Amino acid sequence: MDLPLNNGNKKTLSRLGSSSRLSSHHQSLAGAPLPGKYKTFHQKKPERLEDVRYNGWLDAMKSSSPTCAYLTKDVGITSDDSYSFWMLKYPSAIKSFEQIMDLAHDRKMAVFLDYDGTLSPIVDDPDCAFMSEEMQLAVKNIAYYFPTAIISGRSCDKIYELVGLDELYYAGSHGMDIMGPVSSNLFNHHLKCVESTDQQFGEDVGLLQPAREFLPMIDEVFRTLVENTKDIKGIKVENHKFCASIHYRNVDEKDWPRVAQCVLAILEDYPHLKITHGRKVLEVRPVIDWNKGNAVEFLLDSLSGMDNCAGVVPIYVGDDRTDEDAFKVLQARGYGFGILVSSVPKETNASYSLRDTSEV
Ligand SMILES: [Mg+2]
């Protein structure tokens, strides 16, 4: 499928064709690369409250909190008991460290790290989710020995600003914006990669942006969401370049239906977008077959193609639902170590656990 890019060039994006939902709207998207073109879509009123309830949105919003454990309803079982029981299936990565090293043997490892809730604690204001100096030093040391990437829902620029380490790879917007130094050779042989001089990095970087066509649409959706939610106290809408995030952590629960209404209305107006749930955050992103798992696959395959990285063993550490796509990739490959950061029992595709960011 040929879709126009922002810079006027054209590029074949086969992954876009993998979504039947997107294909049905191909004509309207293909002819609408400019932000203003989308403005005719979002004139309708938000969905009815009943639709929000019937669609299970409120249940999903409530269950996105880590305090909603699925085992603690059992009669007579305390949350500590539940967690201990859960850890029989997902043992502590700290206590299993020697076992993990034995399983990895002497193979080269690659380390993938989520940011929020993994390297930094979840805080009320996402702009204040800073990593400790101790954690930054630990990540820097890891990157000295192993290829290391930050895989986050935030934009690449924002995550680089928060982490501040040049030696890492960054996959922002849930993997839709992958950036790393050209000198790594990681990006050299991939058809979709381009070189760019990044203002923030101040040097040439390699970029893989499989959803580049959606940039103007996401920007417009961000501005629409800011406008439509401006009367909801405590809400925070962020533009992560390839996705827009709506944080409702500080919104009174009685107003959550209004949040859901505003976001659900976006789906009606922009059929090329979908919603995913994080920890007290809803995220609007393109309907393309690309997520954190794809980003891990791309980076792993690229690393494996490098002379000294054959058979690289991945370790992925993350804390929320979007990280499950990456855990699934490791599970499907049959090697590597998925580590879930959680203080409560959760269903997961990871193999090991850590209780909180202090254990990472
Ligand atoms: Mg996270």
Automatic annotation (TrEMBL):
Full protein name: Trehalose 6-phosphate phosphatase
Family matches, as InterPro entries: HAD-like_sf, HAD-SF_hydro_IIB, HAD_sf, OTSB-like, Trehalose_PPase
Annotated GO biological process: trehalose biosynthetic process
Keywords, ordered alphabetically: Hydrolase, Stress response
Organism listed in the record: Trapa incisa
Hydrolase listed as a keyword: yes
Polar residues bias: start-end ranges: 1-11
GO MF, any single term: trehalose-phosphatase activity
Biological role stated in the UniProt entry: Removes the phosphate from trehalose 6-phosphate to produce free trehalose. Trehalose accumulation in plant may improve abiotic stress tolerance.
Catalytic activity line of the entry: alpha,alpha-trehalose 6-phosphate + H2O = alpha,alpha-trehalose + phosphate
Pathway(s) served: Glycan biosynthesis; trehalose biosynthesis
